[in-house]
Design brief:
six-stranded mixed sheet; 8 strands
Length: about 240
């Protein structure tokens, strides 16, 4: 239309933003084996940060620990060291165990995450996902529309196998109670509850085309990430091929 020849040049994408969202709410300061879920989240986030800067990408984060702390993506060693400093502060139980007023802290964080993660980002969501509800799917789908998203579910062994029969004192830091697992019916109810939760998380991520990686509190986090991310990459390829 202009009467002049135009050439469109495509440049390889460099310094891709990588954003980690860490759920460090009260339920994450718990474990019966290995390390607290919050510690596993911090280890995973730090490893993702080092891998990102090694690949020449920028690392950013959204840290939830009663409040939300946004870290805009920053490249190089400065970016990952900044993330690690903030993780040390955010994983303090003094902050994470404070009562929270959020109706659903996970959905609120996902809404904020859409502002932090610019289109084209690689996003990691680290949580145990006990706060998922009907709105979570909408937030994930909006986020997935313009970004690649990987979910990392942090679980403790007690969430997969009930404790031996007995009576156990339990507390959430404010209230106390007794857990009775002496009957088969109680242990079966325990298994059913956690099985239904894990199934709900799997189905949610499948519907949103988000690869799901499970990390237990007793895992070697680095080894689990290497294996899980390789599998997640294949899932993403298969999803793209199915869409095509």
């Amino acid at each position: 239309r202009t009467g002049k020849a135009h050439t469109k040049i495509y440049r390889e994408e460099r310094e891709r933003p990588v954003v980690v969202m860490t759920d460090l709410g009260p339920g994450m300061f718990f474990a019966t084996q290995g390390a607290f879920k919050s510690v596993i989240v911090a280890r995973a986030a730090a490893l993702i940060g080092w891998a990102a800067v090694r690949n020449g990408d920028r690392i950013g984060a959204l840290l939830f620990n009663g409040g939300h702390h946004e870290l805009r993506p920053l490249g190089g060693q400065r970016g990952v060291l900044r993330l690690i400093r903030e993780l040390v502060s955010a994983t303090s139980p003094a902050g994470g165990l404070r009562p929270h007023t959020d109706n659903n802290h996970l959905n609120d964080a996902l809404l904020r995450l859409r502002r932090v993660a610019r289109p084209g980002s690689l996003v990691f969501i680290l949580s145990d996902f006990y706060a998922i509800d009907a709105d979570t799917r909408r937030h994930l789908q909006q986020l997935r529309r313009h970004n690649d998203v990987i979910a990392c579910q942090i679980v403790d062994g007690l969430e997969m196998t009930p404790p031996p029969p007995g009576r156990y004192a339990v507390s959430d830091g404010i209230h106390t109670g007794t857990l009775d697992t002496r009957t088969q019916a109680r242990r079966q109810a325990w298994e059913n509850y956690f099985s239904e939760h894990h199934q709900a998380v799997r189905e949610l991520m499948m519907k949103c085309a988000v690869p799901l990686l499970r990390i237990t509190t007793s895992d070697d986090v680095a080894a689990r990430l290497r294996k899980g991310l390789a599998s997640a990459s294949m899932d993403a390829v298969n999803t793209s091929e199915d869409a095509a």
